[in-house]
Structure formats: structure tokens, C-alpha cells
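Please fill in the sequence for the structure shown.

STRUCTURE ENCODING:
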């Protein structure tokens, strides 16, 4: 129930030089120093064996323009489909690893696997980010990443959504004028005590 989640494209290349893409929603940041990420992949996915064997992969962020390709790469297998060719995506050669990214993506992370956790339905690949490629149009004059301009998408319960308007920035809650405890602006329970919740139980 931890939704929405990012919809990303995972790129890999087998030892024979065959490229593949798969869509993953269970991916995220797990450490800042060193920078590390995780992605959980079902054992039966074609990319699983490739990543396990090569120990590397890319993460390409997805946008509104990449939504169709993102969905396609999640429902077609690389065993019998060249997803780059079918979706007219351009492989982006990495600088530090052999796996390709997606050139149409605003941000591509190059990742080296450090640990594999066998969890059950999915294996979690924990990897260190060894390089980041960013489209220049999303960097301001000072080099700050303005990713809010990239029109990124998210995934929630089988549906894709474009990210909405910005409603704040980190730390803005402590910079605004102080309000009395218990008020709505303070995040208190004022006016919300009658809201009901339903326990859904365990979901697999």
C-alpha cells in the first residue's frame, strides 16, 4: 500500500552484448553516503538473470513522453522482444558500466550491485550509484538540478500519473509563520477527529 511509487526503466546488457529494458516500480534510494539504490525484481524476469550475472544495471527516470514505452517494457519480455527497437528508444552508453540507459530519459543512474537479498517473490538488488547522466536542459546556471521541469510520472495501483504542481520545498514548514497547536495549518487533529479508517489486513 506504499503508493505512489516511481516507474523507472531498468537497463541491462548480457555477456553476449544483448540489451534489455524492464519496468520497475519497486525502486528507491537506500543510502546517501555512499549513494545507493535498490530495485526488487521477480526471479522469472528476463533481466533478473542478466543483472545477477553481470552485477550492473542502469535506472532511467521516466516522463510523460516515455509513458507508453514504460508500460510496454513492463508487459513484454526481452526474451523475444527488442524493446529499444520496438519503442524507438536510443541506448545511452554508460561511462562506468556496460549496461545501457535510455537517451530520452532526463536522468540515468549507473549502478553496480553490492548485495542481493532473497526475499521471496522478489530479489532485492542493492547497488551503488557510480555515475549519473543528466540532460543539460534540466540544470540551471549554477548546476542545480531542476527535475520538476522534466514532467516525471509515477505509478499507483496499476495506473500511471504525471506529477502535479509543487506545493512546497524542503524545510518550508519551519520557515512560515508559527500557528497555534491543534490547528489545521499546524497539522493537528482539529476538524479531522471523526474521520474513519478501515483495516485492510495482510495483502500479498
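FILLED IN BY: designer on duty
SEQUENCE:
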Amino acid at each position: 500500500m506504499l503508493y505512489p511509487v516511481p516507474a523507472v526503466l531498468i537497463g541491462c546488457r548480457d555477456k553476449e552484448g544483448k540489451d534489455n529494458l524492464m519496468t520497475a516500480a519497486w525502486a528507491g534510494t537506500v543510502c546517501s553516503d555512499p549513494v545507493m539504490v535498490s530495485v526488487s525484481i521477480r526471479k522469472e524476469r528476463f533481466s533478473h538473470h542478466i543483472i545477477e550475472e553481470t552485477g550492473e544495471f542502469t535506472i532511467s527516470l521516466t516522463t510523460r513522453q516515455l509513458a507508453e514505452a514504460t508500460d510496454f517494457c513492463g508487459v513484454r519480455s526481452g526474451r523475444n522482444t527488442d524493446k529499444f527497437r520496438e519503442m524507438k528508444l536510443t541506448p545511452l552508453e554508460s561511462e562506468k558500466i556496460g549496461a545501457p540507459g535510455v537517451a530520452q530519459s532526463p536522468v540515468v543512474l549507473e549502478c553496480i550491485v553490492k548485495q542481493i537479498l532473497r526475499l521471496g517473490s522478489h530479489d532485492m538488488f542493492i547497488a551503488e550509484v557510480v555515475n549519473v547522466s543528466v540532460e543539460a536542459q534540466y540544470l540551471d546556471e549554477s548546476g542545480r538540478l531542476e527535475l520538476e521541469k522534466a514532467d516525471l510520472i509515477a505509478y499507483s495501483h496499476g495506473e500511471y500519473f504525471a506529477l502535479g504542481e509543487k506545493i512546497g520545498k524542503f524545510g518550508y514548514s519551519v520557515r512560515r509563520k508559527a500557528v497555534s497547536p491543534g490547528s489545521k495549518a499546524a497539522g493537528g487533529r482539529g476538524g479531522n477527529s471523526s474521520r474513519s479508517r478501515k483495516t485492510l489486513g495482510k495483502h500479498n
